[in-house]
Design brief:
Layout: H1 3-15, H2 33-44, E1 60-62, E2 69-75, H3 82-92, E3 97-101, H4 105-114, E4 122-125, H5 134-137, E5 140-144, E6 150-154, E7 156-157, H6 162-165, H7 167-175, E8 179-181, E9 190-191, E10 197-198, E11 203-207, H8 209-212, H9 227-238, E12 242-246, E13 261-265, E14 268-273, H10 281-294, E15 304-309, E16 332-334, E17 337-342, H11 345-358, E18 363-368, E19 384-387, E20 393-395, E21 409-416, E22 421-429, E23 437-445, E24 450-455, E25 463-472, E26 477-480, E27 489-492, H12 504-507, E28 508-514, E29 521-528, E30 532-539, E31 545-554, E32 557-564, E33 571-579, E34 582-590
Parallel strand pairs: 2-3, 3-4, 6-8, 7-9, 11-12, 14-15, 17-18
Antiparallel strand pairs: 1-5, 2-19, 5-6, 10-11, 13-14, 16-17, 20-21, 21-24, 22-23, 22-25, 23-24, 25-26, 25-27, 28-29, 29-32, 30-31, 30-33, 33-34
Amino acid sequence: MTRIYQCLLLIIVLLCGSSINLIAQDLPHYLTPEEERLLEDYNRQRQVRSALPDAPTSPVRTMAEWEEIEGLLIRWEGTWVRPLLRDITRYAQEEVEVYIVTQDSNSVRNYLSNGGVPITNITFLDEESNSIWARDYGQWTVYDNEVGGKRFIDWIYNRPRPDDDVVPEALATLLNVPLHQTINAPNDLVNTGGNFMVDGFGTAFASELILEENEPGNPYGVSSKSEAQIDTIMKNYMGINRYIKMPVLPYDGIHHIDMHMKLLDEQTLLIGEYPTGVADGPQIESNLNYVLNNFNSMFGTPYKIIRIPMPPHNGVYPDNWNSDYRTYTNSVIVNKTVLVPVYEEQFDTTALRIYREAMPGYRIIGLDCNDIIQASGAIHCITKAVGVDDPLLISHQSLENTGNTSTSYQVDAYINHRTGIEHAELYYTTDTTQAYQAVNMTLTNSPTDTWTGYIPPQPGGTEVFYYVDATANSGKNQVRPIVAPNGYWNFFIEALTGKEKLSLNEVVSNLEVYPNPAVEHGLINFTASTSISGRIVIRDLLGKELMEVYTGSFTEGNNIYFANVSHLASGTYLISIETNTGRITKRLLKE
């Protein structure tokens, strides 16, 4: 369905009369004109069956997508999307329980069985619903005091689809999980799940749609709220301490960030990339610059960025009216499996390779989304995770490449469970075809639940692979990454011969600074032919060092760093890449 066809569909809806039930089972991701007229009255009459309107009394933590889950919620839809729902069920049921919302479970069973999908690890919810977009109206899992009791949070859905809006209550009742809803002023918050991503430690990302839908004069009939008031609601209900919001994209009609970005872990952002100057590319880059210039990861270090193409449709991009908004970031992580939308092999092979390199050990599965993307959504949009009842939380900032060949490599991990941690081990190897070596970790900082282990020093030229394994006092066991030992963190020990003897000009090329002249921030971009340690500094024309931008390892391939130069006076400066083999300099004009 091209955008022209979408518009024709909306015209037909308007001509067919006032009842939205005419297309109740095939509603698109976006808001139809008929629904726009129903919004305010709908929310005034909004009914709930059994939920808590107040926020949890204990501090809560919203789980991240890469954490352990016990279930995945989907809504069974009309014929146009059933093949995709069947494939999601096929792979998800091998990891978790699949909760399918339908009033015709026998028909679903027959369809799955005829497609070779066994009826195992499937629970049917006999509930009506209006659409497949479970990401937007489904429940969010939070935990008391980080790893305590499980609760569900439910916002006011930003669509007048009453049957969708009660799905979280149905699931909460089935699983006997407390459900809190943001339904009463001043906490009557309208929000949508595709426009919310969280790192599991209190940082969340969204587009400014969240502000627009709750501002004075909003069409939803909810109380007007300032940004500070919205932040307070998210803190009280979801434990969000840092709510990062970015301008909406001009060509993404639904303004959901999962259409162009994804958190892969606490410090890694997967970002959709268009050709220079095309479609939403400029706004995505502007938003990314805003994030990198103003926020660090939970570890206090810059976010790592992985780019993934936004593929064209029939050779054109969304700034052409006759194009679908194809995206690879709209994937879902289901424990050890990642389900990725695919469209055409010529683009898909690159996208799947990027996922496999970024998430070693995970089973990366591509699922055909050519039909569903016509309705402005893909896999992430129609799935919603159900967190486990008993989380064992492990967080670790992966080690960077190093030239150290003489002292051990310290590995710190945050490990927490409601019963406490009995023991933890660090496993490492320099050859993934051989067995891992175990090292005991010790509790080195009890107030912060920090456990520490040491990998013995390795010779230059070695690649080290490692993971963390922890067991709670209750006997609960967990590894991180969750796919270990098949998946791992890794770092390189840089050899002091060979590449270290190369001159810097032989290693670094294509040094550019953008924008140049700069006003507040500068983007430093260069290519390295191999990994090497060094630093980036800014000097005046006399060579005096004014500021250090970065010190550490540069990775093989493209490197991007951001420098805040707002405090520098107007004039000309030198940006230098410096290693023990030389210096490369580029002039920067500061306005």
